[in-house]
Amino acid sequence: MSVRIEGLTAGYGRSAVLRGLDLVVAEGELLVVVGPSGCGKSTLLRVVAGLLPGTAGRVLVDGVPVRGTSRDRALVFQDDGLLPWRDALRNVELPLALRGVPRAERRVRARGWLDRVGLAGFERHLPRELSGGMRQRVQLARTLAQEPRLVLMDEPFGALDARTRSAMQELVMAVLRETGTTTIFVTHDVDEAVRLGDRVVVLGAGEVDVRREAILAAVMG
Amino acid sequence: MARRWVLRVVSLAAGLLLWQVLTASGVRLWLRFDQLPTAVEVAERFARQLTRAEFYGDLGSSLARIGLGFLLAAVVGTALGVVVARSRVLGDLVQPLLEVVRPIPAIALVPIAILLFPTDEQGIVFITFVAAFFPILVSTRHAVRALPTTWEDALRTMGGSRRQVLVRVVLPGALPGVFGGLSVGMGVAWICVISAEMISGRYGVGYRTWQAYTVVDYPGVVVGMVTIGLLGRVTAGVVELLGRRATRWLPGEARS
Q: How many domains does chain A contain in total?
């Protein structure tokens, strides 16, 4: 999926956190959006996901303006977004259940994804019985089970310790590249941006080279 | 562990003994214990009641009234609570009406109930319904409003419809709050069903208890009181048990 954002202004209430943003993401590309907290990174993702309408400008996905949410555009939350009353397996099954995939089939597929993120054996655990890193992996498995064409990641590894984080980064990269999924990845972590991005955009400063110094310079303004 | 149980049994036994001594020896220290039946009289009376069909008939009618009234309140209260919390238009339409009626204690509606309904029986069920309805409605509304938005956002970005959000997120997510309301509702429902029976019933534990008082059958009064207490305890236990089973995912609930 390709994304084209033209002159987007968006925010909550009267204050716009995004003003006249232009952004292009090509099919299969991984774009990292960097910026300090409160600069509108999450707002950007919510608009592209279709959860929040922009107040001005356009968001085109494959050339079509975004209107409402779609299973083609998955959002990965910082705080896992799992339903606490569903065990890991049933959380991963959820996107499949929503579109009416028969139980036996979605079981098999969900198990496969849990396996892929290294959580075989934890199918029957409730979210609260899993560590933060494990919950984030469950969310990742759920996102992959959804088979979206565009993945929007909102600082998904922000709450993880360094070791878990780098393992998760590798896993995500591998799977997204493998499936050719277009990705917008939001973070305030410059090293993460360098490690993951095909291209890096600093909110407020525009596109920069995928180099630590270049990103830092842009972030510092 | 055993010692704690001993202490608990001693406490109960001491209470019973004190009752027996005060009433049997006709103590009159401002409080007129000589008017009250003794513990032994009440126990004998209770044993006799247990052999009489009338007693079970009363139990049956009170339970049927509370069962029907409470069930209606649970269904209507939960449904309206969700609707009011989820839809701004319906919320604005329905809520002012509810807020006007809510401060009126259900038991104050007895005269209206008598006038409004063709039979006393229906009136009593109505009172019970009103009593349980408001705590359930308010708890549900609050629980739905307090749901983390992430859950709903997650479902919508998976392509979930409004109906799917309702069924998969709102209802299960609000369940702990709903059960809080059901517990409170059950308590208030008992207060009101007993009072309504005392005022306008022809059967039922509340009616029988008041009846016993008017014919100077004081042991009968205490038997009625104890019966009401036991019924309240059992029904509250049932609600709590169902609630625990439905919300096992909450932190602090042991997983079996």
A: 2
Q: Give the CATH number, domain containing residue B149.
A: 1.10.3720.10
Domain, as residue range, for B240? 36-245
B158, B173, B247: residue with CB nearest A98: B158
Contact at CB, B251 and A50, closer than 8 angstroms = no
| Residue written as token pair 């005269």 | B111
Q: What is the pLDDT of residues B61-111, one digit of tens each?
A: 999 999 999 999 999 999 999 999 999 999 999 999 999 999 999 989 988
Interface residue of A77, A80, A85, A124 to substitute, partner B, most B CBs within 10 Å: A85
A173 and A140: one domain? no
User: Rounded to an integer, what distance in angstroms lies between the CA atom of residue A171 and that of residue A118?
Assistant: 10
| Phi, psi torsion values for A78, nearest 5 degrees | -65, -40
In a domain, B81, yes or no: yes
Q: % helix / strand / coil in chain A, to the nearest 5?
A: 40, 25, 35
- A53/B43 Cα distance (integer angstroms): 71
